Amino acid sequence: MPRRNQLVTLCFFVVCAGAAVLYLTRNGRIEGHSTYNIDQAEDNIPREKLMKDSVQRLTQGTNLDNPSSRKVEADHQLISILQQRKARLKEQCALMRETHQIQDVALHPPEHLIVNEEHRIIYCNVPKVACTNWKTVFLELGGFAHLNTSGKYHLGPNAKGRLYLDYLHQYNISQRRFMLQNYTKFVFVRHPFTRILSAFRNKLAPNISFFFRHGDEKEQWVSKYGKQIIKRYRGNSEARRVSSNWKQEYDLTFSEFIRFLVDADTDSYNRHWSDIYSMCLPCDIDYDIIGKYETINEDADFVLRLANIDPDITFPKPNLSSMTNSSDPTLADKFYRDVPRSLVYKLAMLYAADFNLFGYHVDPYI
């Protein structure tokens, strides 16, 4: 049985109850990247000790009468929250063991794991969870953020990231295994429904500013997905109408997009809306920190300090009232209100693993 179907079967009752819830050289690296020495003496420090020492460094001190000590108290509170998130993840992964086939990530790493050797960190890059902001940080760490590029087009963080960042799958197996065991690993997650809405509004929805400011990119998304969805659910005549003048006639609805996602007969996979469980393998990779989009400023700041990154390198604050504005409860409610309840239930089942692993609830949308 396909993994996706297994997950749906496993989580059916859980969700219903919550609703009634990585060119290899001989050294193993891509040509042009830095050489990694697995025998460096400093690399023999166990990850657990590094994590413990880092947390102690951040939280030492008890005088709460000054701002720095109040920050220490805030760190203590955040650490407690992070521990709760990790404990929940382990608990939920244990419940999924009957159908979850444990993977050796060193042999088959996800393509989304970004590595910085100097600071011994690994980040699972999840689209629509401030991933561009995190790529900007990693580009800064590598000295590539302000690199001038030649040619007609200016390269943004996503394009630069594909060219200059180091990914776990670029290393050889022994290096991958060492990094997975000794580096600090983190992932940022988001409520599945607001992440899906953000993907729709950013890539496929008509009549928002992105539609006009990034016409070429938008047209690619519309051609690959939007027009095909319209053709599938409305027929050839409607598809021809939209294709004749797509900038004016394109009118894909959110409900049609959701129907496309939950339709078992479609190949709807795209990393922008794939579940985090499948992309980042949180039941196979022992993530040290699970950050959340909903508390991203505090969580990201803690990650940077924990990794002992230069204070001059800061996390670009995401504009939570940005173009898509998808985390706004009022806007999210407006979009999901028009989606048939049967589709909302199926969508919750499709993303059941993310709901359960990361402690999100479907109730507000049912």
UniProtKB/TrEMBL annotation:
Top-level EC class: transferase
Pfam families associated with the record: Sulfotransfer_2
One cellular component (GO) term of this entry: Golgi membrane
Membrane topology: Single-pass type II membrane protein
Database matches in Gene3D superfamilies: P-loop containing nucleotide triphosphate hydrolases
This protein's record includes keyword Glycoprotein: yes
GO biological process terms on file: carbohydrate biosynthetic process
Family annotation (PANTHER family): CARBOHYDRATE SULFOTRANSFERASE
Family statement: Belongs to the sulfotransferase 2 family.
The protein's name: Carbohydrate sulfotransferase
Lineage: Eukaryota, Metazoa, Echinodermata, Eleutherozoa, Echinozoa
